[in-house]
Design brief:
Number of strands of chain A: 0
Radius of gyration of chain B: 18 Å
Distance between the termini of chain A: 32 Å
Largest sheet of chain B: 6 strands, mixed
Number of strands of chain B: 10
Oligomer: heterodimer
Number of helices of chain A: 11
Helix content of chain B: 25-40%
Strand content of chain B: 25-35%
Strand order of the largest sheet of chain B: 6-7-8-3-9-10
Largest interface: A-B, 19 and 22 residues
Number of helices of chain B: 7
Strand content of chain A: under 5%
Largest sheet of chain A: none
Shape of chain B: globular
Amino acid sequence: MAAQQPILTPSAWRPLVVPLLLVAAWLAYSLVRDAGDSATFTSPNAFAIAVAKDTASGFLPGAIVATLARAIAGFLIGAGAGLTVGLAIGLWRPVDRLLSPTIDSARQVALFAWIPLLSAWLGNGEAMKVSLISLGAFFPVALATAVACANVSRHYLEVGQVLELSRRQEVSKIILPAAAPAIVAGLELGLNIAWLGTIGAEYLIGTGYINGMGDGLGAYLAQAREYARMDRILIGVIALALVGLALDRFVSWSSRKVFPWHRQ
Amino acid sequence: MVIKKGFPVAPAIAIGAADAGVEIDQLSKWFAVDKHRVQALDRVSLTVKDGEFLTLLGPSGCGKSTLLRMLAGLDVPDEGDVAVYGVRVERPSLSRGIVFQDHRLLPWLTVRENIVLSLHKSGLSPQEQDARVSELIALVGLTGFDNAKPYQLSGGMSQRAAIARALAPRPRILLLDEPLGALDSLTRTRLQNELVRLWEAERITVVMVTHDVEEAVYLSSRVVVMEPRPGRIQSIIDIDLPRPRKRTDVRLVTLREQILTSLE
């Protein structure tokens, strides 16, 4: 039988040290502090009760699902368009000359500065939010894809020349595989911005009233702020951090599976 | 006469000298370095005989790699002409195999996939291509590593695979650009012997670039010694010693001393 592996190796528990210390400090502070002012402070106890309540009512899971669905929908649309445009720019010089200056200028506009324009055209509904998220995902994906395709090592391109590959073979056998890891890095960044943009869209693009969990975590947070509910503010922030972390880990785990040579 | 379908076949009688594999005529090349024009090669003329093992030897900056790249068709001369088996070199071709100092295997393909890529113009059926690849993998001593990815191979094994890729389409000439330059001395010695064996088995013309004098005299039928600024031929040394040779052969040691002295 193999030597017994300790379940909690240092590398396994070390990442938990800081969060646990924070929770311990929070507990200690809540013991010495007067309870009462729920607008600036909530005790771990009240927090746990609020989590249980909002989970049982479906309010919190519903908000998480709505936010995730919106982020993923926006990401798929934006990343799809970004990949298409990025490939066209990276593979054809004339398209590069035609589109790059415009895209480089548009990219300078902060994501939330598009809100006035988009809401004028699309209103404040779902179409507008998803468009904004797509726009957030579009730029990093388009840029990473274009740069990755245009900057494939000359060494590999010479192999294509020496083997007399056609342009089609050069693209499929050399350029795309060589560019893939950088394109995936662009997709990771695009997903990250889509995720941040989703919260911003939900939080900032108010519909004028709170109409339930369909508005997502951003609206959950906006509502918590409106009613000065510190327990729910904390729940919203922690949920965002955890779901965002899970998304991020999932994406980098899958890219390691797909491109094993990249990390060598 | 049966000509194997699809393989590049040179004319039965080469234009010019009947036994001329390579004819280099008054070839000059300049590069732009920091806005200055630097002459890399100055009116170089050279004939490589069919079936010869010829080495271009010289210090860095003597233009030996540039000359080889022009034989491959990866660079074009500014003045003068290069012809291989009576055909003027204008672009890279599968009829001229090349192996670089870095193996340049495509990291996303297995050893087998890398080699089979060079057979896309061979006209062989997929089964025949598979058989040809297996034959080459055995020839370079990589049996059992068909499905390994390049990052799983040692430097020497990668270079063997690169040689197999260059030989697969049955080129009449093999161009080697310091192919053993990045290897440790033990692997290097072993691969030198392998190169001689491959050259004898395939009855192919070899032009190799190296800066290792011992390697040059041990392997070659003729050594072309070059000198820099601007790159030109200093002397051509015939080495008509019988094979198999011994590295300690006093005639080889004397030749090596002579060449080293002439390079000082």
